[in-house]
Amino acid sequence: MSKDNSTHSKDVSTFFHGYAKDFSSIYEEDVNPRSLFNKLMDKLFRQDIRDRFNTTLQYSANPSIKTILDIGCGPGHFVVKFLEMGKKVVALDIAQGMLDITHSRVNEMEGNHHFSSILADYSEYKFEEKFDAACVMGFFDYVSDPTAVIKKLLSEVNSEIYISFPDDQGLLAWQRKIRYERRNCPLYLYNEGSIKKYLSEAGCLEISTITKTNRNYFVLIRKENSE
Questions:
Q1: Whole-number Å distance between alpha carbons of 22 and 37
Q2: Contact (CB, 8 A) for 51 and 79
Q3: What does DSSP assign to residue 215?
Q4: Is 0.85 surpassed by the pTM of this model?
Q5: What is the number of alpha carbons within 13 Å of residue 213 lying toward its C-beta?
Q6: In the chain, at which end, N or C, are there fewer CB atoms within 10 A of the end residue's CB?
Q7: Strand segments (E) across 13-56
Q8: Maximum CA pair distance of the chain?
Q9: Mind listing the pLDDT tens digit for each residue in 10-33?
Q10: Closest CA to 147 of 108, 85, 200
């Protein structure tokens, strides 16, 4: 790993280790309560987070999807839902704080579940197994080389890949960029043209569906052997 990539990963890890509980509460207030201001912001500007959550669950409910890799799993909200569906889940995150919350949620679930976790930078981690699907929500916001990561995903996933890309337009995109810079966390924003470019470079544009939402793009990559 080069010095630049190492510094990049460390900055992202540090940011999300400290942000874990506040980020988790966007989905569910079982870790940190939301202030009235944050609840208003959630209602006005963060609906996309819940929309992409629901869309991903709809696709992954397909019974042919039995194993899922959750990349940048965060506080484990997707992980819990995948496990409730009976999927085998591997959760990967670069921030220990996020994995701690994920493990806490999984431990509170009833029954036996096929779950394991990995603390690592996905771009540097080598898997010996392949997965039926990969959930990649809120991850490309922090990826400096999207083409390389998409190629890696294609080599490790047999059927479907669910990706979100943050939109580069609007006041909130600009505000978010400034806010992350102040916290020394790299942030990458996209438009439809740049997303198509990266998908084309990775060789999967023709098997990809791009859906524009309010503040994001939802991309479904469905490989030929997917039902």
A1: 13
A2: no
A3: S
A4: no
A5: 21
A6: C
A7: none
A8: 47
A9: 545 554 444 444 544 444 545 555
A10: 200
